């Protein structure tokens, strides 16, 4: 069960890194002074990555909780 906990923690950290990347990507697009349409397109490109990173974080946390529960 220890492997499940540490594996879940690693997956959760990977998801968190993806979420941080998305935040910095959108913030840099806002700072670039893009037009409304260009900014919308930049955000549209980041949304699938953001959802995947959020999914990874949730799955990782579920693995940690399951590992603690089963230990």
UniProtKB/TrEMBL annotation:
Transmembrane regions listed in the UniProt entry: 6-27, 47-70
Alphabetical UniProt keywords: Membrane, Transmembrane, Transmembrane helix
Highest taxon above the source species: Bacteria
Name listed for the protein in its UniProt record: Uncharacterized protein
Lineage, broadest ranks: Bacteria, Pseudomonadati, Pseudomonadota, Alphaproteobacteria, Rhodobacterales
